[in-house]
Amino acid sequence: MSTRLIKGRKGVRLARIENQTNRQVTFSKRRNSVFKKANELATMTGAEVGIIVCPQGSKPYSFGHPNINETINKYVGEERPPSPSSPGIDDKYVQMFRKANSSELNIRLNSLQDQLDFELNLRSKLKQMNKSAENQQEWFKGPIEKMNYTEASMLKEGLEDLLLKVKNYGTERGYGYENGKWKAE
Amino acid sequence: MSTRLIKGRKGVRLARIENQTNRQVTFSKRRNSVFKKANELATMTGAEVGIIVCPQGSKPYSFGHPNINETINKYVGEERPPSPSSPGIDDKYVQMFRKANSSELNIRLNSLQDQLDFELNLRSKLKQMNKSAENQQEWFKGPIEKMNYTEASMLKEGLEDLLLKVKNYGTERGYGYENGKWKAE
DNA sequence: GGACCTATTTATAATTG
DNA sequence: TCAATTATAAATAGGTC
Hints:
Pfam family, one (chains A, B): SRF-TF
Number of strands of chain A: 2
Subcellular location (chains A, B): Nucleus
Strand content of chain A: 5-15%
Coiled coil (chains A, B): 109-136
CATH topology of the largest domain in chain A: SRF-like
Helix content of chain A: 40-55%
Oligomer: homodimer
Radius of gyration of chain A: 21 Å
CATH architecture of the largest domain in chain A: 3-Layer(aba) Sandwich
Shape of chain A: flat
Number of domains of chain A: 3
Protein name (chains A, B): Agamous-like mads-box protein agl61
Strand order of the largest sheet of chain A: 1-2
CATH class of the largest domain in chain A: Alpha Beta
Number of helices of chain A: 5
Domain MADS-box (chains A, B): 7-67
Distance between the termini of chain A: 61 Å
CATH superfamily of the largest domain in chain A: Transcription factor, MADS-box
């Protein structure tokens, strides 16, 4: 007909997809891509990756490198009660950051590597085997609800201010780094 | 020039990168890419996405869309830690991974989200600028001291896009960048 | 609705500065 | 070393069946 019949991708429109069908298709495709990318990242760099994806009105999907459950559990497990001085936004962030900072990373790299490699192969095979079922990996059955975007407006102001400064920032140089910090092999 | 001078990507080697330097570079790049992809996914499909990345020997990086804080809370709140003996509701990925190799890894990650990513960048800048963050960004009081100036350039772009996103929130393009640098060896 | 196809865009490994 | 460039592989939006 009069349609152009453009088959290739025409560009990424980074906006919410209106059409529900297309949105779901995009969700499936891109989710898989993100997982794949994460898998590659983990495999190539040895990092551990955990991903949680919660589509609206559906169950969450997850991708965990070794084990995202353990990851989260560990993380939040050591969490402590938030401080009462938090203005609107709970202190969880702070706690997490602190934990992230104070956590010591000792990971068995060799095992990780093997596991990552295995994982990679498995994922590829899994993808090939049941493409139809690739959307059905329900990890958790926990209901996930969307949060409001209250922080966005707050963030906006900060960003606007910050952007100006960052823009004029290019020439400045300076970095504190610790030598020998990377302790791996 | 007799050399081929192949500059483009020659293919993804699905294996651990041997060179430490290259591995770090790849980690930074791909981590950002994964975050970007995840942000695109979240934006386009409205899904909630949270990513946790733990590089070896360094502190975890996190990313996510609306509010993984709540996500994690719900997870850990309603879902007890997955027991390896009764993994009926566990994810298939993890199951396959466990089957592939039964080695368990020690991980610790912090999980945050898109705004956490913003915060991460913002916090870094704010810290160095000594900006009074109490009014706007008070969430990240956590001690994260691995930021440096090297990310300014990348951060600029990220912030610019981010700003658009925050301003229009959902109709414009935008993606969060993590800090592009971790401590070098 | 899903699997495959293809044109085009995007990501990124290697290279250069 | 770090950032920028570039050429190539990979991702993917839309179409077809």
